[in-house]
Amino acid sequence: xxxxxxxxxxxxxxxxxxxxxxxxxxxxxxxxxxxxxxxxxxxxxxxxxxxxxxxxxxxxxxxxxxxxxxxxxxxxxxxxxxxxxxxxxxxxxxxxxxxxxxxxxxxxxxxxxxxxxxxxxxxxxxxxxxxxxxxxxxxxxxxxxxxxxxxxxxxxxxxxxxxxxxxxxxxxxxxxxxxxxxxxxxxxxxxxxxxxxxxxxxxxxxxxxxxxxxxxxxxxxxxxxxxxxxxxxxxxxxxxxxxxxxxxxxxxxxxxxxxxxxxxxxxxxxxxxxxxxxxxxxxxxxxxxxxxxxxxxxxxxxxxxxxxxxxxxxxxxxxxxxxxxxxxxxxxxxxxxxxxxxxxxxxxxxxxxxxxxxxxxxxxxxxxxxxxxxxxxxxxxxxxxxxxxxxxxxxxxxxxxxxxxxxxxxxxxxxxxxxxxxxxxxxxxxxxxxxxxxxxxxxxxxxxxxxxxxxxxxxxxxxxxxxxx
Length: 469
Fold this sequence. Notes:
Elements: E1 2-7, E2 48-53, H1 54-65, E3 83-87, H2 88-91, H3 99-106, H4 111-123, E4 135-137, E5 144-150, E6 157-167, E7 170-178, E8 183-195, E9 199-212, E10 217-221, E11 225-229, E12 237-248, E13 253-260, E14 271-278, E15 288-293, E16 297-302, E17 307-313, H5 335-338, H6 340-347, H7 351-374, E18 384-387, E19 390-393, H8 434-442
Parallel strand pairs: 3-4
Antiparallel strand pairs: 1-2, 5-6, 6-7, 7-8, 8-9, 9-10, 9-11, 11-12, 12-13, 13-14, 14-15, 15-16, 16-17, 18-19
């Protein structure tokens, strides 16, 4: 028997409003047209359905039944079948899926228009999400993820680097830059998980900053929370909820966005309302208002004239492909290589084997923390340094890039992997598990399927190690 866990993934239909025009911010700001979609009709036509066997569904509910409302889930080990096959460090790149919006902002001289374009970039990342209700891997201490986006021409390359700088409490630091456009994005996040009865929340504490170096201008912002709802009753669905504030003190503007969760008796999924206003002004005096749904269409309304246009249309956007190095060229603590065995097993639906590899990594991390504590060793991150409650990239730029800073065409500024060891000074050899050998015997890849990923090994010689695991 199979139990269907129905996961509502909302799509809209119908029409509302009018096609965008050049009367609000001009053709350069909204370079597309679209048949507007009805907010009232959101929620019913197309569903993403995730099916779980009765056994894993029973395991999940048995685990949940032992939790108390308000309980911190940081030390609760969730079953492997709820995992998304990638690390949180890579999952954060979803929010940077449309860097072209920021590149347009870099070239925009009008402060208000530039700020609005940044808000547009922020709301554009939430529609990129995994199917169903999935949780990314908890990063291992010292784990890193690096990628870049090629834009071509004068826009060059945007690079991204993230590192897990602390494990207890968990802290993720990230840094992105585009040298040709003098753009820097940096931040540190402190994820906290809470059990709320029929739902679980992942709260992303911390703050982030966007810097336009050639304008000496920065915009601070935070992230909303993520909820898994319907653990006992109703449909199992992933929601985003909470308030976001984006502030630029230099130009005196702020945006306040409210990501709304669906009510029990009414409302719709994935709704967003917001305002763009001068700092300190009341919402009723806002310059612009925003409303709609982050997974389909958002609208921008100019308060003075009540003119409305399409602000963001998820159905009209392609997600640029991020580029990473081949697995064999990655460092041993880079996310895709570090978790390659777990990902390989999940991809072949071998949950037992995936659990074995996951526990091996987690046990090694615990042994490493114990080893550092017993030997009074301090953990030192590879790329980030603490500044107060925040973490910043050690080579972070504060002044504009010059011609000498730019790399030749085709080259990408990638930090060299650092040979650190968050584990105890002993090998992790997952190749010894017979389950993997059996899986490999059963698996016959075709000509376009890459070979199985390399082993995850930690040298006995170790490297820098320390506290924080």
